[in-house]
Each structure stands twice: as structure tokens, then as C-alpha cells.
Design a protein that fits this description.
alpha+beta, Heat Shock Protein 90, five-stranded mixed beta sheet, two-stranded antiparallel ribbon, 7 strands, about 10% strand, elongated, transmembrane, nucleotide-binding, membrane
Length: about 425
């Protein structure tokens, strides 16, 4: 069963089939295209950095002061680098935002040129300069360490062929004379190849995360954070208002309607059947009973009573028992869940099972509830005909909106011919 395409490399690294996908090759392309950019920037930093390190080393070893020409060179060079950094980083940042699309499909808004003075006064410009400095210093160092690990592994793999020469071959910390002695090292080297292939993705993902953090707008990040907080406040306010309405309906309207129904029932017993008032009274009694059933359904729709009485696992098992096909429930919930999460998860299972019953032509279904770190994972699968499409109805779309309002996400896998899997992930903060 296929899942949704990961939006970026960091998400793809968590998928089981990462090594067999196109993502490692995209990571390789991102790393290879970084090499010339980082190389040019590192040469520029070395022009000032190498003499500075040499001067510091001389002072530490010989306890001699720095000569005046060298001090002037370092001071002027540092000033030139600082003065050129906001200008050079503008071109580097524009290229990096475009290149980031190789491993991250999420767009990074470009910053329009706002004048020369703004390059030296805005925080965003100096964030770009910081990224250029890291690209010319930390990134090449990380690449050299990774390249060294690759060369060591290739030496392990090639050691049986190298050991066939007349000279002795040193493999890591041992000396081998024959291909048979080198064979265990070669096996270890072959087993490490997938690890290094995966490690390349980790290096590329770390660089991409650094680029997104420094090249993204600080203002946009703050605005997005405030939108997230505002949405959380709205959800909390909705839940508080929902509980108030539920309490008012349950404690005020429902008892009075029950009393009215009983009074009408008693009145029917006192009125003869041939009386002109008997039929209108019977109609009023039936309408009152229907209204009471409707009110119970409304209260149940706001927050199912089974959630309060049985908890999420018990309420889902009750849903499974009401389904028209066999439904198996697997629940692994070791800690209490927030009320909002429980309600959203219950509606997700209810809507998914309703879709299975109405559209899937399935013979059985399965529901899984589990905690994965700080998230609740809800999966509903069936053996039906598949082909579920949110565009053909409002059920899945409305469910996705409800899950999104709770800060979660909904994933759907439903190839033609089935099976179908609906996966809901909800944060349990």
C-alpha cells in the first residue's frame, strides 16, 4: 500500500523504503551542487582565516606579539569580509532558495531587493550572511568527514583485491597478507554501504534545514507561530463552548422535554379514544417523543456520551459493534488523552467506518489506535474496492478540516481495487 509522497527529505528519511526511493539520489544531487558553491566561499574565508589562525598560533607557541603589518592585514581583511558579506550573501541566498527545491518541495519566499542600506540594517540580510559563512566553513568540514568515511569503507570493500599484491596492506588498524584475511573487512564494508547511503541523506537534510531556517523570513516565522497559537486558542474556545451547550441541553432542555412527554402520555390515558382531542393529543405525544430522540442525537453529536463513560478505546469498540461488517479494534493507549484529541479521533473512526459501510463494498475492517511519541495515530483499513477520492464527496474533506483544526493531519491510501487505509495523526500536547 502506497503512502503520500513526503514533502521534504527529512520526512522521507523516516520512511521505511527511503533507500529504494529517489530521495537518496536527490540528496546526492544537492550535495554535489553544493561543492562548488561552498568551495568558492571557503576560499574567500581562508584568505583572512588562515593568516589569523597562523598569528594566533604564533602568539600561543612563541609568546610574541603580532607584527604591525600582519595586524593591519587582518584588520583590513576582516573589514572587507564583513562589508562584502551582506552583498555576496544576497546572490548566494537567491541561488540556495532555488536549489533547496531539490530536497524540499516547500517554497521559501524570495526577498526582493530593498536597497543597499537595507542589506546592512535588516536582520534577514545578516541571517543570509550567516548562512553563507556556514556554507563556507561548517559545510565543507562536514563533507570532508563524510568523504573520509566513504574512502575508509571503499578501502574495506577493496581490501581482498589489494591484499593480493606482494606488499602488506593495512586495513584500519590491522595488517592483512592474504585475501582470506581481508574478507571479513570487505563484508563489513559492504554492510556499511547502505548506512553511508542513508548518512548522505542525513547530511543533506541537516544542511537543508539550516538553509530553510536562515533563509526563511523571521517575520513570516513569527506570523506562522502566532497563527498556530491563535488556532489553538480557537479550538480551546470551541471546546469550552461545546461543553457548555452540551451541559445546558443535557441538564436543562432534556429533563423538561422528558417531563413534557410523560405529561402528554398521562393525558392520553385520561382522554377517551373517541374524544375529539384524542388524535391531536396522540400526535403531540409522538412528536414530543421524536423530539426527545432528536435532542439525544444532538447531544450525542456534540460529544458522544460513550467517550465520557468508556474512553476512546471503549467508544471505538462500541462503534465497531454497531457496524454492519466485522470490525477488529486494536488499541494500545497507555496514557490518558486530551479531550479534544479523543473527540477528533472518535469522529475520524466514525466517518471512516461510515464510508466503509456505504461505499467500500468491504467484508471486514480494522481499526488501530496507538501512541507514537507525542502523537496519537488512528488507522482505519478495509479490504474493499478502494478508489476513495476526497473530491467526490465532503466526508473526507470535512474530516481533514476537523483533523487540521486540531493540529493533526490525515493521510489516505486507496488505490483502485483496494485496500484502503485512512491514517490520522493528532498531537497529544
Amino acid at each position: 500500500m502506497t503512502s503520500a509522497q513526503p514533502p521534504h527529505l527529512a520526512a522521507a528519511l523516516r520512511h521505511r523504503g527511503y533507500l529504494l526511493s529517489w530521495w537518496p539520489w536527490r540528496a546526492l544531487a544537492y550535495v554535489l551542487t553544493t561543492v562548488p558553491i561552498a568551495g568558492v566561499l571557503s576560499v574567500g574565508l581562508l584568505v583572512v582565516g588562515a593568516p589569523l589562525l597562523a598569528a594566533v598560533n604564533a602568539v600561543r607557541q612563541h609568546d610574541r606579539p603580532v607584527s604591525l603589518p600582519l595586524a593591519l592585514f587582518l584588520a583590513v581583511g576582516t573589514l572587507i569580509v564583513v562589508a562584502l558579506a551582506p552583498l555576496v550573501s544576497a546572490a548566494v541566498a537567491a541561488l540556495e532558495r532555488w536549489r533547496l527545491g531539490v530536497v524540499d518541495g516547500r517554497p521559501v519566499p524570495a526577498r526582493p531587493w530593498s536597497g543597499l542600506a537595507a542589506r546592512y540594517t535588516s536582520a534577514d540580510a545578516w541571517r543570509e550572511a550567516a548562512y553563507a559563512a556556514l556554507l563556507g566553513s561548517v559545510v565543507p568540514l562536514a563533507y570532508w568527514v563524510y568523504l573520509l568515511l566513504v574512502l575508509v569503507d571503499l578501502m574495506l570493500v577493496a581490501s581482498p583485491w589489494l591484499a593480493g599484491d606482494a606488499d602488506q596492506v593495512i586495513v584500519v588498524w590491522s595488517t592483512v597478507d592474504t585475501p582470506a584475511e581481508a574478507a571479513p573487512y570487505a563484508i563489513v564494508g559492504v554492510l556499511l554501504l547502505p548506512v553511508l547511503w542513508y548518512g548522505l541523506g542525513v547530511v543533506a537534510a541537516a544542511q537543508a534545514a539550516m538553509a530553510r531556517r536562515l533563509l526563511g523570513s523571521a517575520g513570516d516565522t513569527a506570523a506562522l507561530r502566532e497563527v498556530t497559537r491563535s488556532r489553538a486558542r480557537l479550538v480551546d474556545s470551541y471546546e469550552a463552548e461545546r461543553r457548555r451547550i452540551e451541559r445546558d441541553l443535557h441538564d436543562a432542555a432534556q429533563p423538561r422535554l422528558t417531563s413534557l412527554t410523560l405529561q402528554l402520555g398521562l393525558a392520553r390515558l385520561d382522554v377517551p379514544e373517541d374524544s375529539p382531542a384524542a388524535r391531536p393529543l396522540a400526535v403531540a405525544h409522538e412528536q414530543a417523543k421524536g423530539l426527545m430522540v432528536l435532542l439525544r442525537q444532538i447531544v450525542h453529536g456534540i460529544r458522544p456520551q460513550s467517550l465520557t463513560d468508556l474512553g476512546l478505546a471503549g467508544a471505538v469498540r462500541e462503534l465497531a459493534g454497531e457496524a454492519t461488517i466485522p470490525v477488529t479494534v486494536h488499541a494500545d493507549l497507555d496514557r490518558p488523552l486530551p479531550e479534544t484529541v479523543e473527540t477528533t479521533a472518535w469522529y475520524a473512526v466514525s466517518e471512516a467506518l461510515n464510508n466503509v459501510t456505504r461505499h467500500a463494498a468491504a467484508t471486514r475492517a480494522e481499526v488501530r489506535l496507538a501512541r507514537a511519541g507525542d502523537r496519537l495515530v488512528v488507522e482505519v483499513s478495509d479490504d474493499g474496492r478502494g478508489g476513495a477520492d476526497p473530491a467526490r464527496g465532503t466526508g473526507l474533506t470535512g474530516l481533514a478540516d476537523r483533523v487540521g483544526a486540531a493540529g493533526g493531519r490525515l493521510l489516505l491510501a486507496s488505490p483502485p481495487g483496494g485496500p484502503t487505509l485512512v491514517r490520522v495523526e493528532l498531537p497529544c500536547r
